[in-house]
Amino acid sequence: MSFQITLQPSGHSFPASPDDTVLKAALDAGYTLPYGCRNGACGSCKGSIISGTVEYPDIQPQALTVVDVAAGKALFCCAQATSDLLIECREVATKDDIAPRILPCRVEKKVQLTHDVMALYLKLPANERLQFMAGQYVEFLLKDGSRRAFSLANAPFDDNMLEIHARLIPGGTFTQYVFNEMPEKAIMRIEGPLGSFFLREDSEKPIIFVAGGTGFAPIKGMIEHALHHGSKREMVLYWGALSGRDMYMPELPEKWAAEHPNVKFIPVLSDPMPQDDWAGRTGFVHHAVMADYPDLSAYEVYCCGAPGMVEAAHKDFVAQGLPEHEFFSDAFTFAPKKPQATAPT
Ligand SMILES: Cc1cc2nc3c(=O)[nH]c(=O)nc-3n(C[C@H](O)[C@H](O)[C@H](O)COP(=O)(O)OP(=O)(O)OC[C@H]3O[C@@H](n4cnc5c(N)ncnc54)[C@H](O)[C@@H]3O)c2cc1C
Ligand code: FES
User: Fold this and answer.
1) Where does residue 22 rank: exposed (0-12), middle (13-18), buried (19+ CB within 10 A)?
2) Relative to the alpha carbon of 131, which ligand is closest?
3) Is 269 in the pocket of ligand 2 (CB under 6 A)?
4) Ligand 1 binding site (Cβ under 6 Å of any ligand atom)
5) Using CA of residue 100, residue 102, residue 103, residue 107, what is the dihedral sign?
6) Tell me: the pLDDT tens digits for 25-47?
7) Minimum-distance ligand to the CA of 339?
8) Does domain 96-194 have CATH number 2.40.30.10?
């Protein structure tokens, strides 16, 4: 059995099983409602019930007063439908609908993915969740006042922990700390979500994703988000790396491609090593795209990685017919230089 939930003012409608919260059912259907803690404490998800009934079987909704209930308000992160519902709630349509916040976090787990890439899994305090759009990034706030930007590699539906893929930068203050000193359970501060590199879901155009190295991180979040919502858009991922050992989780995009007919994965190595025994594509990753798509006029491109690659891809793709406004990118620039930068302790 499921109930039908209709949102006002958008008129969007989606099914909800009696075991799902209204928020979860909306997110599963691809509609982003505002939320913060997801456990009834912050009030970010508060909206109105115009008709129908809900219950709170799992949680005592602290941010809902008796006055709220009398006024027909509900907390959609923990309310479960007990009938069809007509509710009033603002939908998050763009990044500007989500205000960045500064939050403490704990490094729950460090996983070395390859010789120079470390995955960090960040846990927020028990009553906090970070709402974001797939592909956005956060900044770590360091003790000396400087900041380091890292993309979110997880999709919003999978937000129990935030996932970061950090590449070790020779001489880099923060990434050296991450690799050599940062203990698991380290407490950090982050600000986010930031940036406008997120999946545009109001388009049906086929998508070409171009990742260089850890530029795969935000693209992973976008593709996982799209697949979770059953997107049937054609998606082709070109992932460029120096050699085999630099492509740090190829089995994941291989799995996407094997399980979803609308996803293709094309790894490209610029400098394969003899032990790679590489029979795949070689050269610059964006050149592989240009060879395969002589006319890019019907596509959207999401491109992420080193600034040189992003800049060259932009120029060359537009020359090959890509509409200027269909190129979305994040360039992994270094943080501005600060005298006497020190690692967080
Ligand atoms: C939006 C965004 C998202 C990002 N996402 C990711 C991600 O998901 N994964 C990832 O691995 N990286 C990502 N980056 C890049 C990452 O933020 C940088 O690599 C970061 O500066 C590394 O920090 P660090 O303290 O280790 O190195 P830094 O201390 O910043 O220094 C890096 C090295 O470059 C030199 N350097 C510093 N500043 C300059 C400069 N202005 N010009 C030339 N050389 C300089 C330093 O001497 C040092 O050798 C992202 C960057 C941006 C802007
Ligand atoms: S009360 Fe915080 S998201 Fe619902």
Assistant:
1) buried
2) 2
3) no
4) 137, 148-151, 165-167, 169-175, 195, 214, 217, 330, 332-335, 337, 341
5) positive
6) 998 888 888 887 788 887 888 99
7) 1
8) yes
